[in-house]
Amino acid sequence: MGHVLIQGAELIVTMDDERRELAGADLRLRDGCVAEIGTGLAPEGAEIVRADGCLVTPGLVNTHHHLSQCLTRAVPGAQDALLFGWLKTLYPIWSRFGPEEFRVSALVGLSELALSGCTMSSDHQYLYPNGARLDDTIAAAREVGIRFHATRGAMSIGESKGGLPPDGLVEAEPAILEDCIRVIDAFHDPDPGAMIRVGVAPCSPFTVSPELMRDAALLARDKGVRLHTHLAENDEDIAYSLDRFGCRPGQYAEDLGWTGDDVWHAHCVKLDGREISLFAQSRTGVAHCPCSNCRLGSGIAPVRAMRDAGVRVGLGVDGSASNDGGNLIGEARQAMLLQRVALGADAMSAREALEIATRGGADVLGRPDCGRLAPGMRADLAIWDMSGIEAAGLWDRAAILLAGPNRVRDLFVEGRQVVRDGRIVTHDLGRAVAAQTRIARRLAGL
């Protein structure tokens, strides 16, 4: 593989251990890694990418998504519903999906993320109707070319057993565990620099049994993969846990083996002080999804308290049926603004929110090789053109979350270019969007 030299960046925000910010610097990418950072680096036969007037950051990391939901943005019956009503509206639509719906929606959703600066994303796929498999989404991720942490989700408790989803969307628990083993064996890469990893991710405490939660944790640890689920998303979630399990969600998670440095939970809007301490002590991670939490009226997650206690926090765009978009740089801005709304203008700086979006997310996903720019780290980075109207008059280039573009000029993953001059170059995005539009119209009966 040849190598790339990014020359003359106005500023490189490294997010390295010293949080260095380097003006007028160059950055060499070789063999999938950052090889050098400095000024006046020799070309050495590299492909040259000029970054005059640009900010360079580590690639952003998305720690929670439901990519298939890109097909159900702004569904009328779900636009103004709380979480449980929202789900009941959408379950019947999702039950009509199949392999092509999952693949095309993932192509569009991952491309949308890439254009917003994302180089690594997880996905929580917990529906498998009409022959769909996790393989469909993984194939799309490989086509787009961003680093991907697929999680094999599941639902096993349908309406007839007191659960939320219709019976036709749930699976038998032995079959769920068997397929977890299959996809881990087929796709999970534990090595540094891995492009594909797989996790185990029962959907939520109100869609699977305690036995499946416990068995899933045992299986994941036997296989050496990570664990993920939804937790403490809103008041309904807390009430359900107290009623069905006699405890709060954090205690329920701990009792079933769902805390530890190999676990991350989505949302955690309603964690109390004891649960925050538990997560900090156990090194349990959190995927904070501010736009979705606003959209569904779930509340403001206590991110400031989590961070101060030492909880690892990353960002997630969540599904595009509860966010209606997948702009990760916008998600970082929203995270910053919500903490300020709750606690004051000094509650979270633009730099701290950017750190959560980069190395914070990488650490939540167990990827200390990503999310920062330093020699030996993976060559995942975003180049932001600061010469446009969004950044006009901006004094502090690193404060891109206060004023700056929300779409990258260039994006590199493992040293390979995924976005060039604001366009996806790895696949035909126009064709994917057209297919997505046709499918969505069919599902809507148009």
Automatic annotation (TrEMBL):
Key words of the record: Hydrolase
One Pfam family here: Amidohydro_1
Keyword Hydrolase: yes
Domain Amidohydrolase-related per the UniProt entry, residue ranges: 55-418
NCBIfam families, per the entry: PRK08203.1
Family designation: Belongs to the metallo-dependent hydrolases superfamily. ATZ/TRZ family.
PANTHER family in the record: AMIDOHYDROLASE-RELATED DOMAIN-CONTAINING PROTEIN, AMINOHYDROLASE SSNA-RELATED
Official protein name in the record: 8-oxoguanine deaminase
Record organism: Rhodovulum viride
